[in-house]
Amino acid sequence: MKFQAEKEAKFAEAQAARKAKAEAAAQVAAEAKSEKAAAQTKLASKAAGAKASKYGNVQTIDKRAERIAARLEAGEEAPGFFGL
In terms of Cα–Cα distance, which of 16, 27, 29, 9 is closest to 72? Predict the structure, then answer.
C-alpha cells in the first residue's frame, strides 16, 4: 500500500512538472510570436518609408525557425546541436 501511494505521488508530480513545462513552452512561443509580429510591424513601417523598389518586396521565410516554434508550441524540446 505504501509503495503504491508513493508511486502515485511520483506520477502526480511528474504530470504536474510536464504540465508546467508545457505551459512555460507555450508562453515562450507566445512571446516569440509577439516579438516576431512587432518586428514585422517595425519592418513594414520601415519599408513603407523607404523608396519603392523597382521590383517590389521579396518576403523571405525561415522554415527552420517556424518548425522550431511549432515544436515549442506542441511542448516538445527544441532541437540541439548534435544532441548536445
Answer: 29
Output 13-18 pairs: Cβ under 8 A, ≥24 positions apart: 18/75
pTM, entire model: 0.42
CB atoms within 10 A of CB 14: 10
Residue 47 included in any domain: yes
27-64 pLDDT per residue, tens: 888 888 888 888 888 777 766 655 666 777 777 778 88
The total domain count for the chain is: 1
In a domain, 21, yes or no: yes
